[in-house]
Amino acid sequence: MAFHIPSLKAEDKPMVIASAFILVILSIGTVYTLSTQGSAPLLSPGYLLQQLQTGSFLGIVAAGMMVVILLGHIDLSVAWTMTAAAMMATTVGGEWAIPTGIAVGAAVGLVNGFGVAYLRVPSMIFTLGVDSVLRGLMVAHTGGFAPQDSATPLMRTLASDRFLGIPSAIFVWLAVSVVIAVMLKRTAFGREIYVTGNREVAAYLSGIRTRRVILGSFVVSGICAALAGVMLAGYSARAYQGMGNPFLLPAIAAVVIGGTRILGGQGRYIGTLIGVILIVLLNSVLSIMQMPEAGRQVIYGSVIISMLLVYGRGNKVHS
Amino acid sequence: MPTDSPIVQLSGVSKHFSGTRALEGVDFSCRSGTIHGILGENGAGKSTLIKILSGVLQPDAGTVEVAGKTVRFSNPEQAVASGIVCIFQELSLVPDLSVADNISIAAPPRTRFGLIDKRVQNRRAEELLARIKCEDVDPNSLVRELSLSRRQMVEIAKALGKDPKVLILDEATSALTSRDVETVYGLLAELRTAGVASLFISHRMHEIDKLCDMLSVFRNGQHIETFAKGAHSEGEIVKLMIGREVTAHYPPKPEPVPKPAYLTIDKLAWEGQLKGIDLSIGKGEIVGLGGLDGQGQKELLLGLFGVLRGLQGKVAILDHPCRPGSPAEAKSDAMRIALVPEDRKTEGLMLAMSIADNLLAASYDRVSDGPFINQDKARTAVSEGIAKLQIKVASPDDIVSTLSGGNQQKVVIAKWLMTDPDVILLNDPTRGIDVGTKQEIYKLIRELADRGKTILLYSSDYAELIGCCDRVAVMYDGEIVAKLSGDAITEEAIVAASLNVGTQSSLQAAGARHG
Fold first, then answer.
1. d(CA B493, CA B471)
2. Domain CATH code at residue A225
């Protein structure tokens, strides 16, 4: 491939480190299970597929998040975008359930993009505000109770059925991945995301419509979050308050662990995939080890911070 | 009370920035109780000199003596401690703090408990402001609420508060109203009596003439001459500033034939920085923009390229109005305008991206089929761009920051040539690049003109304007003060127009007398 961004060795380093860390997690987990239970469930394909199935929701959110982070922005509204999309989808029901959910995500993305690109509000503040507004709207919508509508059969099929013995959610994640990867690498829009993320002034002076690029990226993020929310509702059979909350930090972490520069402009999609797998496995090993929730949080956070420290030292290519 | 030993003395001071010399073996001194003017073209080394004196930069070689003692400032605080205080061109005030806070920002008066003593601080601010006749400024008001001229006066008050022995004013009067300018003149005279040495940098010749006792001319990083006021005439000073240098080779100019106007600019104005620009450029013509830095040249180019909001006046290509609202519109097929921006590192390039990505940045629509980039077209376009400008690259996938400055600039130019523009705006395209590449760029510009492009070139190098351009428009304070063509494009004429002194003919006469 002639025109891929990272011909720089240093850029591949995070992916190598993250992959190595995945192996470390797997070996520690396996040693633990062998010594306590005498079995190695972590290495069985069935178990791994199940982990990837739950990981696919995170993977789809992270795919959208990456596009926004490549611009040097962030989307903190993904949690309630997921919830809102899921709730609207189950409320509408029928064959319009999924399109409705996706439309909610696209609309949230448009609002975010408009605020960041045209009103010039810092994305961290604007998307946080949008997140709060969505939460309020959803509480008003349900009256504060758990919604009674359940997920449509198609949503359930997408999220929890198996196809050729493989969970169909993984196929959806794969499809989203292909779309995002091709978009980033092979379309003008994708390249303009990198150019804008690297230096917005230079991009603007090159005649790139940078505001449209930013707007489009937030729409992509909104749609990805909405799709993940709709599928999560299918997986749990219904939508519920706060269902998206556990996804915000891991999504950002997966993108950054995968080597995408938090200030924008650099990163490969494959890195985000690796980041998602790392986080999913870390979570499952910690739960196998029956680590109490408090300890899990500490380890989880420490791992993210220390990996970023390791990357930061080798990644100073920018002046 | 002028004394015999100089208060500041520089011996053999040199400073280099990545290969280009900013100062070379400079010997310079100034005495207490004088007002010392410093003159020089753009890039003559004036700013570097000031930065070394005020501790912002450290010299690579040579010594700096203050009051007979050798010093080596590693930061501005140390310079201030030795009594050298600088008022910089760019305002250094914090807009969201009060006037009093700003004046005492480095060393605020403290109470017994170590907190800032607001009362003393306000009194101090009032005293200092009274000294420069700015009693109307409330010490408690925020700096952001003040006009530009008032802010500059606060800046001067702040400098006075540091009790200077040597006061450096770098274009400090450029933002002032005429009333404040008079106040500053009075203040400088007062400081002179008090034995303070003032170093005065200004592009306004009459100002220097009126104020200074001594003048020093810098050229090309070297100190040329220091003399008492009146020792040289204006024309001679201009000559000293220009000097005689080895000139680069320029491609031969074609016979000047009047070309029908292609791009017509009519009374273009913008926010007090462009004051009614009239200019027309023909197809195949290279028009140069001259003048000192910051006289509106950059704004004119940006305005034509659709970057500025709130432009007034008319611009037309042939008979079609041409006022793009954004660079994207400017490069569209309807207008076909390209701009090579001033600072390639921040405005021209994505330094961390590959050469190929940088080259394609302006022409994704040309190499795409629908939303998808056609890899073959992209590859062809990139290799054509590299070949056309003979950019020395190992692989188009290399990161652009690995290239030399000259080759980086070629990438920026190639990026725009790939869009096949009709109007090419160049903002100092040869700044900071090697002579060889400069000559290639001159040749290229001429070739582009010969192929019927309309070219507007701003250059801070007068020699370049003379060597490259069919016509030169010199700007001063947002206006075009002289339009030169043919043999009238001389260094004397450009420099004189840049300083807005005398008429062109009187200076030519002066040049003839001394040349």
1. 13
2. 1.10.3470
Tell me whether residue A37 is in a domain.
no
Share of chain B above pLDDT 70, in %: 93
Interface touch B373/A191, C-beta < 8 Å: yes
Q: How many domains does chain A have?
A: 1
Do A317 and B352 make contact, defined as CB atoms within 8 angstroms?
yes
Contact call for B351 and A187, based on CB within 8 A? no
For the domain made up of B8-231, give the CATH fold. Answer: Rossmann fold (3.40.50)
Flag whether A119 is in a domain: yes
SS3 state of residue A73: coil
Residue of B405, B114, B449 lying closest to B250 (CA atoms) = B449
Cβ atoms of A280 and A51 closer than 8 Å: yes
Between chains, do A265 and B350 touch, taking CB under 8 Å as contact? yes
CB A226 within 8 A of CB A106: yes
Answer whether B122 touches A (CB < 8 Å): no
- The DSSP code sequence of B248-263 is PP-PPPPP-----EEE
Could you tell me where in chain B the CATH 3.40.50.300 domains are found? Answer: 8-231, 257-336+421-515
Nearest to B477 by CA among B208, B27, B171: B171
In this prediction, residues A127-135 reach a mean pLDDT of 95
The predicted structure's pLDDT at residue B224: 87
Which two three-digit tokens encode residue B511?
């040049």
CA–CA min distance A197, chain B (Å): 9
Q: Give percent above pLDDT 70 in chain A.
A: 94
pLDDT above 70: residue B502: no
Give the whole-number percent of chain B exceeding pLDDT 90. 26
Residue B252 burial by CB count (10 A; 0-12/13-18/19+): exposed, middle or buried? exposed
Name the packing angle between helices A210-236 and A153-160 (round to 10°): 90
Is the pLDDT confidence value at B388 over 50?
yes
Contacts of B493 (CB under 8 A, 6+ apart): B482, B484, B504, B507, B508
Name which of B202-216, B236-250, B305-319 the model is least confident about.
B236-250
pLDDT digits (tens, 9 = 90+) for B36-67: 998 877 667 888 888 898 888 888 888 898 88
Residue B121: name the closest of B157, B96, B173, B87 by CA.
B157
- Cβ contact (<8 Å) for B351 and A318? yes
Say what the ipTM of the complex is.
0.84
CA distances to A103, A225, A269, A311 from A16, in Å: 37, 27, 14, 11
Residue-range definition of the domain harbouring residue A149? 10-27+44-313
Q: Tell me the C-alpha distance between A9 and B74, whole Å.
A: 37
Q: Which of chain A's residues have a Cβ under 8 Å away from the Cβ of B362?
A: 206-208
For chain A, the maximum distance between any two Cα atoms, rounded to a whole number of angstroms, is 63
Q: A130, A111 in Cβ contact below 8 A?
A: yes
Confidence of residue A131 (pLDDT cuts 50, 70, 90): very high
* Domain made up of B257-336+421-515: CATH architecture: 3-Layer(aba) Sandwich (3.40)
Query: What is the rounded CA–CA span in Å between residue B221 and residue B223?
Result: 7
Contact A246, A57 (CB under 8 A): no
pLDDT tens digits, A81-116: 999 999 999 888 888 989 999 999 999 999 999 999
Q: Which string of DSSP letters, residue by residue, matches A81-124?
A: HHHHHHHHHHHH-GGGHHHHHHHHHHHHHHHHHIIIIIS---HH
Asked if the structure places residue A3 within a domain, the reply is: no
Pure H helices in B331-374: 355-360
Is residue A295 over pLDDT 50? yes
- For the residues B336-361, what does the mean pLDDT come to? 90
* B397 to chain A, closest Cα gap in Å: 7
The partner residue sitting opposite A187, judged by closest CB among B348, B373, B379, is: B373
